[in-house]
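Tokens as discussed.
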């Protein structure tokens, strides 16, 4: 599917998974709004990709702030008149021990990882004019499995899965579908530094890449994927299906 007539908003687009997702849509001729708090990297990517002839537009936005999310949508509508696809990718982890996790830190994680996707989806729905529309929430396998110190992050991602199917039902009949992707280990650093045992731990034989997530996004936002709705796609190379016992 070409996306030459589509306007895509990707949050957290200045790095990692978000950057690769944005790039995938740009390659398919979409207008892609790079929403991120990192002004330096966002501006650099806009310049780099615009010079390639791609339609990349950086919009600075701190997703902890309600007014900045509203201003983001207002600017996009003013410039392009619509938003077709929303990828709620931005997230923070802030792993802390139970004793170290305080309420301000907890609130910050929930604000970025759960409150912001809700509000962005609400804004998206409020400007949607019927017909094709797609929302994808990037969750995590930590929504259903944990490690020490992951209370805030895991709770936010578990909430994001619930938000996904609630939105799908609430938006029934509008033409908007809402789905989630739950990545496992997606290496956003130097892939070449990974060890053989890192890859071997995965039933698929390798650690994931941001491009793996981007491909699923492209499939879920295809115009013919309208029957996939309220679903969560686990993207972890089979790790969460693997039984692990002490040796």
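Sequence:
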């Amino acid at each position: 599917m070409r996306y030459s007539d589509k306007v895509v908003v990707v949050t957290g687009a200045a790095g990692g998974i978000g950057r690769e997702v944005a790039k995938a849509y740009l390659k398919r001729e979409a207008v892609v709004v790079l929403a991120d708090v990192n002004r330096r990297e966002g501006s650099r990517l806009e310049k780099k990709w615009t010079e390639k002839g791609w339609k990349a537009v950086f919009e600075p936005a701190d997703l902890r702030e309600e007014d900045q999310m509203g201003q983001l949508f207002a600017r996009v509508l003013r410039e392009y008149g619509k938003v077709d696809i929303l990828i709620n990718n931005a997230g923070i982890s802030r792993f802390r021990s139970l004793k170290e996790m305080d309420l301000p830190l907890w609130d910050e994680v929930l604000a970025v990882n759960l409150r912001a996707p809700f509000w962005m989806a609400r804004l998206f729905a409020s400007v949607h004019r019927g017909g094709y529309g797609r929302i994808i929430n990037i969750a995590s396998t930590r929504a259903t499995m944990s490690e020490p110190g992951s209370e805030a992050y895991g709770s936010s991602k578990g909430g994001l899965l619930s938000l996904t199917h609630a939105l799908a039902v609430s938006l029934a009949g509008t033409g908007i579908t809402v789905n989630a992707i739950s990545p496992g280990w997606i290496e956003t650093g130097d892939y070449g530094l990974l060890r053989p045992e890192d890859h071997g731990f995965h039933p698929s034989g390798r650690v994931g890449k941001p491009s793996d997530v981007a491909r699923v996004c492209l499939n879920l936002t295809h115009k013919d994927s309208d029957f996939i709705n309220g679903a969560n796609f686990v993207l972890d190379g089979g790790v969460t299906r693997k039984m692990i016992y002490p040796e």
